[in-house]
Structure formats: structure tokens, C-alpha cells
Write a structure and sequence with these properties.
Layout: H1 34-48, E1 56-60, E2 77-80, H2 86-96, E3 101-107, H3 108-112, H4 116-125, E4 129-135, E5 138-139, E6 145-146, H5 169-176, E7 180-185, H6 189-201, E8 205-211, H7 227-233, E9 234-236, E10 238-243, E11 259-262, E12 268-273, H8 283-294, E13 299-306, H9 313-316, H10 329-332, H11 336-346
Parallel strand pairs: 1-2, 1-3, 3-4, 4-8, 7-8, 9-13
Antiparallel strand pairs: 5-6, 7-13, 10-12, 11-12
Helix pairs in contact: 1-6, 2-4, 5-8
Amino acid sequence: MAGTAAPKPPETNRVGLQKKDYAGSKSTLCIGCGHDLITARIIDACYDLDIKPEQFVKLSGIGCSSKTPAYFVSRSFSFNSVHGRMPSIATGTALANRSLRMIGVSGDGDTANIGIGQFAHVMRRNLDLVYVVENNGVYGLTKGQFSATADKGSKLKHGAVNHMHAIDLCALAVELGCGFVARLFAGNTKMMRQVMQAAMAYEGLALLDIVSPCVTFNNHAGSTKSFPYAKDNEFALQDIGFVPAYDPQYEEMDHGDEREITLGDGSHITIKALEKDYDPTNRIAALNLLAEYHESGKIPTGIIYINEAEPRFVDQINMCDTPLSRLKEDVARPSKAALDEVMDELA
């Protein structure tokens, strides 16, 4: 009688972790919420990129979206801030410990309404931060009122029509100098996974504006941020591939007509234009594309803009390599002679 085969050991990544090690608490969001699809892709990306949970920090504000950091990478650091103030906490984190990898999860209300001022300034700073906006066009936590990203002419379930123009977060981010800007649809999980990986590998601020339908308050006919509407009106700008820096097969790849973008950590994005010959490294082309489709009802998805050489926040302010939180007192505290020299300069 043949012996029973030994069970296959669980698959692990390069830091010895299984994908389940990147999970968090069970989601308490509505069944079918687009936010849970985004959470799953964040887990995939952290696993694929061999991120150590203890070197990862999750930040959020207030809203349904800001609950989601509880649902991934439970072994990491986390801070749930007040409404609209996540970017300030991210800036403080970047100053205190530049070695941490940061992801901030926000919503359209948290970002485009009460937090619009904070959003604008964090785009200018270019922190090492993946800024995820789970965009459903409504305040899902307070019964579905329109947010500032709701498209003009869209309707709520009870029939109210939005008469105000929408704030386009991608266009605003490009205008303010963000070096990595992408628009995604939560239902397109393949593109989400590739772009999420690229955003996490990017050295600088990466904005991911993700249309994430609210199945309770904004998934009906008349909503421009519903699953049916987004599926019918999404069109992909590119076919995107992500190649991590440590991929031993990379040199053997045949890119053909694909455009290759090298990220700061040595990883590569391969981009093949689909509908049009679109160059995501052209800032003016990015703004023109967003303006062209802003009123059309179509949802262009993919990498809208990327700048491979945008100076990072820590470099702009000449931050030392050692995290400030780890500096010893004899280094962090100026001597009397140093303080005297400063006073003399100011005299």
C-alpha cells in the first residue's frame, strides 16, 4: 500500500509570510461593497511585494472607507485620524520615521469635502505615500448624501439630482504636482492589482482614485458611480504589467511595443496603449485627457500620469537618512556652541 503523500507546505513570499498573514479583521461593510474589493488588492500587493508588516503603517480619516485599514495587515502600525486630516498625520509620520511604508485610505467626502485643503497640500509635498481614495460619490456613513465628487446630473435613490460640478481629484493632483496619478474601477481587479503594486513601489506620492460603488445608497439607475454604469462606461487606457526589481526573468521579457517605466526601487512598469497613443509621462496630455472626458460620462482607467524623477519630500527638506525617531540625544540635541552660532547668524 502506497504511503500517503506529505501535505504541500503553504506558499510563502520572500520574507516567509503567507497571504493570510496580510489579512485583518472581518469586514463590517455592506455585502458587495466595492471597498472590500480594494482591500483584497491591497493584501495581494503587500504579499507580492514582500512587505514586512512591522515596516508598514496604515492611515485613515472618517467614513466607510476609513474603516477599511482594519481589514488588512493587522500586524502593522495604524492611525485613524479625525475627518479630513489624514494627510497631516501622514506628513508627521514621514518626518518621524522615513523608513516606514505608508498607505492612506480615504473617501470622497473625507478627501474632496472637508479634507480638500489637506489633500491639496499633501499633493504638493510628495510624501512617500500611497493615497487611496475609495470614491463612491456619496456619504455612505450618513445615509447617502452627495459628496463633492458626485457627477453633475447624477441621481440619488430617492430621486434628488446633483446640480453641482464634480471635483476631479486626478486632475487636481496632476495640476498640484503629484508624480503618480491613476484612476481605477473596483470591479476591474486585474488592473487594480497591477497598479497597486506599481504605486507601492513608486518613490513619492501615488494617488489612486478608485471608483468604488456604494451598494446601499449609490448603485441604482441614474448613479454614475454604480457597478452597472462603471462597467458600461469604463475604458482602459493601457494594458499594464508590473515587474518587481528582483524578478529573475525580467531581462528575458520581450516588450514589443510596450513602453517601459523604471521606478526608483528598480521595479518596472510596462505600458501598452490600447484605445489611443497616450503618453502617461506627458503632464499636459494627462490634463487634456481628464478635461476631455470630464463631461462625457466615460471613465478612463489606468495610469493617468507618472513622473519618474519627481523629488521626494524627504529629499526636498534634506532629511537625514536615520529616522528622526531613532536619533540619539547627543545627535538630535544641538550643543551650546551650535545654538550660539545660530543666534549669532540671526543677530
